[in-house]
Amino acid sequence: MAKSCPICAKAVVAAHRPFCSQRCANVDLSRWLGGNYRIPTDEAPTVHEGGLGEQEQEQEQG
Ligand SMILES: [Zn+2]
To answer: Can you list the domains of the chain with their CATH numbers?
Structure first.
């Protein structure tokens, strides 16, 4: 099954997978760096205490 270049939709060349050429690879890379270079830290991570790290109490022996 032949895949197509995600940039220009041409036939993918094995040497430049998953693109058709080094040029398209660079285009994709620049898109990546331009669009998702900085990660928005708007929403704070929600941490729920309890539930996950559930520890059982040690039973006394003897
Ligand atoms: Zn291409």
So the answer is: 1-35 (3.30.50.10)
Q: What is the pLDDT of residues 4-22, one digit of tens each?
A: 999 999 999 999 999 999 9
Ligand 1 mean position, distance from CA 55 (Å): 54
SS3 sequence of 7-50: CCCCECCHHHCCCCCHHHHHHHHHHHHHHHCCCCCCCCCCCCCC
Confidence of residue 46 (pLDDT cuts 50, 70, 90): confident
CA of 32 to the centre of ligand 1 (A): 16
What's the CA-to-centroid distance between 59 and ligand 1, angstroms?
Answer: 65
pLDDT at 35: 65
